[in-house]
Amino acid sequence: MFYEYINGNPQWNLQINRQLEGIKESQKVKKDLQLAIPQLKNTKSWFKTWYDLGIMREKKEDFQIASAYFGLAQFYLSTDDQNKSSVVHKYLDNFYHAHTEINYESYRVPYQNTFLPAIKVLINPNAKKTLLIINGFDSFMEELLIAINFFKGTDYNIILFDGPGQGRALIDNGVKFTPYFEKAVSAVIDYFNLQEVDAMGVSWGGYFVVRAAAFEKRIKNIICFDFFYDGLNTFLRDFNHGVQAEIRQLLNKEAADQLNQLVSPLVYENANLSFLFTKGYENTGTDNPYTLLKEIEKHTIKNIGHFVNQNVLLLAGEDDQYVPFSDLPLEQKELSNANTLETIVFTKETGGEQHCQAGRYDLALHAIQTFLLSHAD
């Protein structure tokens, strides 16, 4: 279930639901939330509240809960913040303390004179298939390890990695966000010497996985969890239609100064936009709205979707607060050459209506299992 913890703040509600997936019904967590929610006033109090709770749970060896709280604490910190790296590593350290049941091996995949951190999870020693999981705009690969329980008893082992602009690849190695994600995916496939894989992209990874599959034909089945058609559409969603049109005109004219003067004050006034742009600067290494949006507009399936000839599953949340639901038919049309194309829309009635089915990951993962099973040969 998706819980409305804070009235009028869908961004914060999504992040809390996201990090507390699987533990939010715990009595310990419910008790902590009674203390935490009234204290959340701004990003400063957000950090202090979750960090203090994380320290408390870590001392009590409630490692899974502590990991979630540190994941929340680090979320709005920029890479320039002196606390960022240490809190991220508390998040990761507690995660692995909590999940000793995961049979995994860690790797460093060579990439651009550094490396991408990767994990191979051995679910089934006799598995013949590999599922490559690609994360998104603001996540770490560890967050997606929640999926592994759904693949027990299947013919899959799983590989996850932090790609350019993601997780430790960004924070520790400085590898910046790129629209050309097929290069990172091919590097991972080459490193593990795989002849074929199935691939799932989560959130912004829904773009990355389609982009990768358009140019990397060792990918056989594609899962967009959720669909993601166009980065610029996502970044501009919270501006009114008039401002959106003006921004697009200024981008086309390459009118950098005018665009920056228009956008900067509007971003400052809107918490969701402030997060998107601040994280965008961090991911891409840009420092103003114009240069950021010029990078983000490269993240689109438009004009490349027709290269995809594999089997594709698109998941969509009707009330997705990031990806415009109206983009769905555009992506379906773009994927005109897919071998098969299946779309599942989640609503409030079915559950899973939020971005990436936050609150009901089980619905999405069961749909994914069914899709993979139907294309097992």
From TrEMBL:
GO terms for molecular function: hydrolase activity. This is Alpha/beta hydrolase. InterPro entries: AB_hydrolase_1, AB_hydrolase_fold. It comes from the Bacteria. Keywords: Hydrolase. The keyword ATP-binding does not apply. SUPFAM superfamilies: alpha/beta-Hydrolases. Residues 137-337 form the AB hydrolase-1 domain. The keyword Hydrolase applies. The lineage of its organism: Bacteria, Bacillati, Bacillota, Bacilli, Lactobacillales.
